[in-house]
Amino acid sequence: MGEGTTVLTNAAKEPEIEDLAKFLNKMGAKIKGCGTDRIEITGVKKLSDISYNIMPDRIEAGTYLIVGAITGGRIKILNARPEHIEPILNKLEEAGCKLTIEKDTVEILPPRRVKAVDIKTMPYPGFPTDMQSIFVSLLSTAKGTSIVTENIFENRYKYVQELNRMGTKIKVEGRSAIIKGTRKIQGANIIATDLRGGASMVIEALIAKGITQIDNVDYILRGYEDMDKKLRSLGVEIKIVN
Fold first, then answer.
1. Buried-exposed string 94-129: b where 16+ CB fall within 10 A, e elsewhere
2. What separation in angstroms does the CA of 206 have from each of 18, 120, 166, 201?
């Protein structure tokens, strides 16, 4: 609604940005170029009320696929956009998971133990940085040694210290995490450090022996609506206290 035309260069290309532009344009905005690295916005006098269905959360879809992969559980994700999570699906297949992919569903049938894979986070459409910690949880139980390299954000391995308290064998060297797979995961009292790191701790707790207590759970709930209810529907013993 600003006067004149604004141009954003070097813009991110994630599908969420395209979806936002579709929403605003339906309200009467004039936005072009979303999904490219150059976005042009021409100001308008007003926006109108509308009804709009927001796109599915691709990181949430990827997270629950990892839940299936780490537990050996067969899980079907509904209301998904497989074209938005291709790098995640590719790495799951590389790790030995069988996937049934349809227009708006993905079903995972994992092996008893996944294989180690190497990952490098990249801008969209590369492997998403928001799935880095979540995939590290899976690879911490894989057969073999994996190397995950974080190319987007610095200081995104704060969660590793907490996972190692559970028995994982993860070593951070600069932008890379070296993960030696192990099955000896123990429950512990740990602290969520951020949204995705917290989710990785929940995933690790699913296969840990005994009880895991995760503090600072507000971080996790900010990005996963009804996570406890969804996991309980899959048979997980989980509850939110306080």
1. ebbbeeeeeeeebbbebeeebebbebbbeebeebbb
2. 35, 25, 12, 9
Question: Using CA atoms, how far apart are residues 41 and 8, in angstroms rounded to an integer?
Answer: 8
What would the two tokens of residue 8 be? 């954003």
Predicted model pTM: 0.95
Spatial distance between the Cα atoms of 230 and 62, rounded to a whole number of angstroms: 14
CATH 3.65.10.10 in the chain: give the residue spans. 58-233
* Contact partners, residue 208, CB within 8 Å, separation at least 6: 166, 167, 185, 186, 187, 188
Tens-binned pLDDT, residue by residue, of the chain (242 aa): 999 999 999 999 999 999 999 999 999 999 999 999 999 999 999 999 999 999 999 999 999 999 999 999 999 999 999 999 999 999 999 999 999 999 999 999 999 999 999 999 999 999 999 999 999 999 999 999 999 999 999 999 999 999 999 999 999 999 999 999 999 999 999 999 999 999 999 999 999 999 999 999 999 999 999 999 999 999 999 999 97
Q: What is the CATH number of domain 58-233?
A: 3.65.10.10
Q: Measured in whole angstroms, how far is the alpha carbon of residue 236 from the centre of its chain? A: 19
